[in-house]
Amino acid sequence: MVRKVTKTNPNLTKLIGTLKKQSNIENVAIWKNIAKRLERSTRRQAEVNLSTINRNSDDDETIIIAGKVLGSGEISHKVTVAALSFSESAQKKIENAGGKCLDIDALLEENPKGSNVKILE
Questions:
Q1: 64, 72, 1, 61: which is closest to 38 by C-alpha?
Q2: Tens-level pLDDT at each residue, the chain (121 residues)
Q3: Fold topology of 10-120
Q4: What is the value of pTM for the model shown?
Q5: Distance between CA 89 and CA 71 in Å, rounded?
Q6: Which residues fall within 8 angstroms of residue 79, CB to CB, at 6 or more apart?
């Protein structure tokens, strides 16, 4: 029998609700997909290194990660990364490369349709 995972962080539950609502309003599936990924147990949430972002992205691209960005590796081009959280070293490396680090809420406000956004896991 599978146990249902319930989140206790009020900020995270509010974010999940906002993503689902935006998905229905704009009629786009990307936000519902991210909400489902955030509903997973903490063990199953994404942890992505900068080297993975560097390999799977191009210059001036927007990347979203439903989890944490870790600082292992280097980034050689300018990207905008939206994630649930960032390690200190990852945030410094992204900003030094000319990129931006955003919360998922901020990306939702900037780009409500979710166009030209790549999901990495």
A1: 64
A2: 677 768 889 999 999 999 999 999 999 999 999 999 999 988 899 999 999 999 999 999 999 999 999 999 999 999 999 999 999 999 999 999 999 999 999 999 999 999 999 999 8
A3: Ribosomal Protein L15; Chain: K; domain 2 (3.100.10)
A4: 0.91
A5: 5
A6: 53, 57, 59, 60, 61, 62, 63, 94, 97, 99
